[in-house]
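Job type: complex structure
Entries:
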Amino acid sequence: MPNIYFNSQKIPFKVGQSILDALIEFDFKPVYSCKKGVCQTCMLKSDSSQITQSQMEVKDTLKVQGYFLPCQCYPDSDISVISPCSEDITYDMQVSDKKLLTQDIVQLKLVFTSDNRVFIRAGQFINLKVQNDILRSYSVANTPEKDGYIELHIQKVPDGKMSAWCFEHANIGSALSMIGPFGKCIYLSDFKNDDLVLIGTGTGLAPLIGIINQALSNKHKGKITLFHGSRHFNGLYLHQTLKKLADTHENFYYKPCLSGEIPQTLADENINNGRVNKVAMMQLNKQKGDYKNIRFYLCGHPEMVKNMQKMAYLSGAILSKINADPFEYTAY
Amino acid sequence: MSNSLFDSIGGKDAVNAAVDLFYRKVLMDESISHYFESVDMEAQRDKQKSFLTFAFGGPNNYTGQSLREAHAPLVSKGLNENHFTAVAGHLQSTLDELGVPEDLSSQVMGIAAGTINDVLNR
């Protein structure tokens, strides 16, 4: 009799039985609802090739991470599966580089201290832990797999413990640990021909620039439009880099937006005045593009993300093509 | 399950075709949209999908109790019969838009109408 290894626990099963039914039979109390492959509540993760048939209804960005529906999975030999929330393994890391991007944003580069194989995609986030008790989420700003390090952009938060550590105490060689990665705000090579619209406020730019660089190095064919919003000009912290990127890639468009007043000195910078979601909706409507063909990436201020997601959906965008990552700031 | 309402209406495909039409109508209706706004729109859409699966006579785990618990916080924020009727109206127009024959759509509307006491916590 073959076995399912569920979070490493061994469960014998009968060939012809679904993984979900085996988990129910052996009283593992899995979460499930319809058992018909519709509701997706029973979703688990595996790297086995036996899950392919049970991934038909799973969203593409989850599929590549090994998510599948155990109610639709009938393996015929041993298989290891895990519940998505069991990834509580911490990895030791250290700071390999530190640079102030602005007065309020610091860039850290992190490397693993031991030979770990953690596959982190551009656009995902990790939970960072320092001094054993401070834990915060940060999006990666690069493609760690390619670069060999993780890049983070950390916004200074008044009274924020983690940002204080990053600004004041972090030095090259400082130790910290990470949990993750998490998040499905990612780019896949299947998206090559899609038009991408990326909208971010503040350091919500970090995951977006990771995705953009990955798409460009993948020789993305569709149009890539980035709207980056801030109140003040120094919040557009990659302005020069992004301008240069737009000059050298004909399918990449950079649209900086300031919600505050635009000073005369910036008159030549082609900055849009207004909140980034409003500017984006206005320009998208003007182009009369078909919303259902656009793939959205929204990161940053939760109100902006929520409003933009709703407006895009009501304008005809497909919800599974709207990747939303609201940044909830912890003010302590 | 042959000739069940769920199969006649088109099963999972019918639910998939209906869910965005229905959810967009609900979100665009300002008299009710605030009850449906959620940061996690995908989760909210999945709930609409389970509801439609239920109303289309499909496999589901809807119980009177779960409907009651899910809507109780909304009832305390003023959810009433007018809101229920508005949502039902959007369901009807979704079915009409999809060209669901009347004998089937009236069965769907019947199932939906049967939830009123649980939804309004009466």
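Summary: The first helix of chain B runs from residue 5 to 9. Residues 5-119 of chain B form a domain with the Globin-like fold (CATH 1.10.490.10).
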